């Protein structure tokens, strides 16, 4: 009887061990399958995002004088030469660049000061005021553009460039406010109070304590403002005229009138400009600090 019980216990133990091994084997297979699916999704996403860019870059160096099949038979830079000497596109790029620089400078200054004031408000005022400042991000660009063209046409005292600047600031300022608030939220108020106790005034406390700690968030907001201004089409379409127009408006107009690979050359040029700006930011500030570490704890 005792031997029967021992053999039964041994059988149960062996069965449980075999089932445990099978379960572990199945779990490993499931984990391996899930890992493969995740890698496949990441790969397909990368292809989906990069394929249009690759095609645009390749077609921008097409040696043919017309839009032909892909891939091109040979390589030439004549489409870039046409872009740089295009009397319609190149002035538009100058306008876009000046507009983006002005928008970035003004939006960064306004957004930093507004965020500094909002961060010092009481909680029951801070949230509704922040929501009011960020409201333009919730509105469609066509709504903002239509409203601005109606108001500015009635007043009609601003040059076209300043109308474009006003339209871009409406959307760029909320970006700078939001990013600056992220940086300011991580700065302990005791640091500012300690500086004031030690004899510094408000201006000195801001430039020696607050600004150095929040500079990366401010820089991130400036990057968003510059990128938006360079890429905006909807608002600019309402506020441009035949003399002053940014590059996105010019590209859309050219695409409707005479579609050729000058558009691809312009797109590649803008991509190259973006890469150069990112490299400069990485050299000067450190791109990981500008984008990835906007909150400081003290």
UniProtKB/TrEMBL annotation:
InterPro entries: MetI-like (IPR000515), MetI-like_sf (IPR035906). It is found in: Cell inner membrane; Cell membrane. Keywords: Cell inner membrane, Cell membrane, Membrane, Transmembrane, Transmembrane helix, Transport. It is a multi-pass membrane protein. It comes from the Bacteria. The chain crosses the membrane at residues 36-61, 97-119, 131-155, 161-184, 205-228, 261-281. Residues 93-281 form the ABC transmembrane type-1 domain. Belongs to the binding-protein-dependent transport system permease family. This is ABC transporter permease subunit. It comes from Bradyrhizobium agreste.
